[in-house]
């Protein structure tokens, strides 16, 4: 789990008295989400490309239908 | 006696076109229903009564003058509050946008105006659509239950008649879940069929706009009005399939209905599973062929969903997080901050997993035309509930429990329709989800309409709960 350090990069809680608690919760949640996503490690993703927006629509990067 | 506010959109439009119903009378009836119910429900952020009255008066003049009418001429509707309407407060139910008034219409507002529909207000939602509860809004069927979300206000308004139809957005189930909990029809179209221009993003690759209605026929009517190519949405596509508008005549011969042997009936309340099995059997009685299927890669549905939504939402709100983070609710702010911590390789892993899932579902749909599942594993939970606990000891966070069965259609981009198929022993509505093939909305809606026509109100339970002066439906608590 990521450290609930106040100096963790990119968070916006430093301006509040309860910043440590909120930042800890965010870090804990991020760790949980990452852990859930790691379930995908069991998949063989060899040769599998990402599925960004255009792929999901069935379109190529130029917007043309495949 | 049926009041105008209880009419479906199709019936109201037909009566208006035939000069049997005045748009003014219909709009007044809908506005009055809102006035009667809002203290109890809180479905609306903003009501646009005066503008609606002015538009209704003009709509009446157009009818009497014999001018050409749009397919929804004079029909009152509501928009979820993350969808822009020019000159109308649009807050996404967030303090961050408490005073935001857009100058331009969203694509769907523009299209509904062109179709003749009349905006009566903007509806409450889970803050920025990141949740499935809508805590501000009560469920009209039982006030101690959640309305569902994130389009909870839209669903509650249509359920009680304070809007004849409404639009919602659906990133993991946010149209279908509240449709299921409010006894309504909810449609998430194929990704890209409805433009999201002017809609606050939550997760670009998962976001959809769709209707909440009181009949499948209405869903088809509204979809036809709001769909179409829009260069302002990079995901926009045009369906090559013409819409099938009309009533649900005919049968379902030749339709292959997939009956899932895994995942979709696991950890599902017995009354919900039973109602969906009965409804599936009804589809078979109507001529459909049941096909037992094993749905592929279901273990990876929730990881793939979170792997997209968490980082995409954080990116979508990056500016807000930098400049006014204190204006988010603590729950949302924590989610967004957590999303910022997801690494790029994790996001890409989820995208690659999504490719595999999408390909596997494409293969699945070579053997079936539609997959019949529960929309949600349970009926509307109590407002105090934070988890779902099952008889075998399995416990899940309520959010994962609510989106577990709807999110596959967001990951794959496939169209999905939720329609009411009964009630549990508390009298709470149950929804069945029909997932169709890519761009197969006309087939999906046809199946729903045939089912609806065969069952009638008794089984599909489309009656609106009455909030005042009635012994039926809503029970004050």
Question: Could you list the spans of chain A in which at least 5 consecutive residues all have pLDDT below 50?
Answer: 1-9
Kindly give the count of domains of chain B. 1
**Percentage beta strand of chain B:** 15-25%
Mean pLDDT of chain B: 93
**What would you call the structural class of chain B?**
alpha/beta
How much helicity do the residues of chain B have? 25-40%
Structural class of chain A: mainly alpha
Strand content of chain A: under 5%
Helical amount among residues of chain A, as a percent range? 25-40%
Account of the 3D structure:
The complex is a heterodimer of chains A (66) and B (477). Chain A has one domain (1-66). In chain A, 36% of the residues lie in helices and 0% in strands. Chain A has 2 helices and no strands. Chain A has helices spanning 19-37, 53-57. Chain A starts with 18 loop residues before the first helix and ends in a 9-residue tail after the last helix. Chain B has a single domain, classed as Amidase signature (AS) enzymes (Alpha-Beta Complex), CATH 3.90.1300. Helix content of chain B is 38%, strand content 16%. Chain B is built from 15 helices and 15 strands. Chain B has helices at 9-17, 23-41, 49-64, 107-114, 152-160, 176-181, 216-226, 270-285, 301-316, 318-323, 330-340, 344-364, 398-403, 407-412, 441-460; strands spanning 44-47, 76-80, 118-123, 138-139, 142-146, 165-170, 185-188, 208-213, 256-260, 289-293, 370-374, 387-389, 395-397, 416-423, 429-436. In chain B, the strands form 3 sheets. Chain B has an 11-stranded mixed sheet, with helices on both faces. A two-stranded antiparallel sheet of chain B has the order 4-5. Residues 468-477 of chain B have low confidence and may be disordered. Chains A and B meet through α1 and α2 of A and α9, α11 and α12 of B.
């Amino acid at each position: 789990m990521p450290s609930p350090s106040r100096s963790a990069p990119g968070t916006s809680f430093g301006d509040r008295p309860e910043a440590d608690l909120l930042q800890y919760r965010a870090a804990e949640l991020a760790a949980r989400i990452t852990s859930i996503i790691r379930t995908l490690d069991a998949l063989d993703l060899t040769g599998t490309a990402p599925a960004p927006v255009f792929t999901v629509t069935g379109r190529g990067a130029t917007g043309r239908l495949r | 006696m049926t009041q105008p506010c209880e009419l479906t959109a199709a019936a109201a439009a037909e009566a208006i076109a035939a000069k049997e119903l005045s748009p003014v009378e219909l709009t007044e009836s809908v506005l009055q229903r809102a006035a009667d119910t809002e203290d109890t429900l809180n479905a609306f952020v903003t009501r646009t009564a005066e503008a609606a009255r002015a538009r209704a008066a003009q709509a009446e003049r157009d009818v009497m003058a014999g001018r050409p009418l749009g397919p929804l001429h004079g029909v009152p509707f509501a928009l979820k509050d993350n969808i822009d309407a020019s000159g109308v407060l649009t807050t996404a139910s967030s303090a961050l946008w408490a005073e935001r008034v857009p100058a331009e219409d969203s694509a769907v507002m523009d299209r509904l105006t062109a179709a003749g529909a009349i905006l009566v207000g903007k509806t409450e939602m889970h803050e920025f659509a990141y949740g499935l509860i809508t805590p501000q809004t009560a469920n009209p069927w039982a006030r101690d239950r959640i309305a569902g979300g994130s389009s909870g206000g839209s669903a509650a308004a249509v359920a009680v008649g304070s809007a004849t139809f409404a639009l919602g957005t659906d990133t993991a189930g946010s149209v279908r879940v509240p449709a299921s909990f409010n006894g309504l029809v909810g449609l998430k179209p194929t990704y890209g069929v409805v433009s999201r221009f002017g809609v606050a993003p939550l997760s670009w690759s998962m976001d959809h706009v769709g209707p909440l209605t009181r009949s499948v026929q209405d869903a088809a009517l509204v979809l036809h009005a709001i769909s179409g190519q829009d260069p302002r949405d990079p995901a926009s596509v045009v369906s090559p399939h013409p819409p099938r508008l009309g009533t649900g005549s005919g049968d379902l011969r030749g339709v292959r209905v997939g009956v899932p042997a895994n995942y979709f009936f696991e950890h599902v309340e017995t009354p919900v599973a039973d109602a969906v099995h009965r409804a599936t059997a009804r589809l078979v009685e109507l001529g459909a062929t049941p096909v037992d299927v094993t749905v592929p890669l279901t273990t990876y549905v929730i990881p793939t969903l979170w792997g997209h939504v968490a980082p995409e939402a954080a990116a979508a709100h990056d500016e807000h997080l930098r400049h006014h983070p204190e204006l988010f609710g603590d729950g949302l702010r924590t989610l967004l901050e957590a999303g910022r911590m997801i690494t790029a390789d994790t996001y890409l892993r989820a995208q690659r997993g999504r490719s595999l899932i999408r390909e596997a579902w494409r293969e699945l749909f070579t053997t079936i035309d539609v997959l019949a599942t529960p929309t949600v594993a349970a009926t509307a939970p109590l407002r105090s509930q934070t988890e779902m606990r099952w008889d075998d000891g399995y416990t899940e966070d309520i959010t994962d429990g609510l989106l577990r069965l709807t999110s596959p259609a967001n990951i794959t981009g496939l169209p999905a329709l939720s329609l009411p198929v009964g009630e549990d022993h508390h009298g709470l509505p149950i929804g069945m989800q029909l997932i169709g093939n890519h761009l197969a909305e006309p087939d999906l809606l046809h199946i729903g309409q045939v089912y609806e026509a065969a069952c009638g109100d008794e089984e599909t339970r489309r009656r609106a709960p009455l909030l005042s002066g009635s012994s039926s439906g809503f029970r004050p608590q």
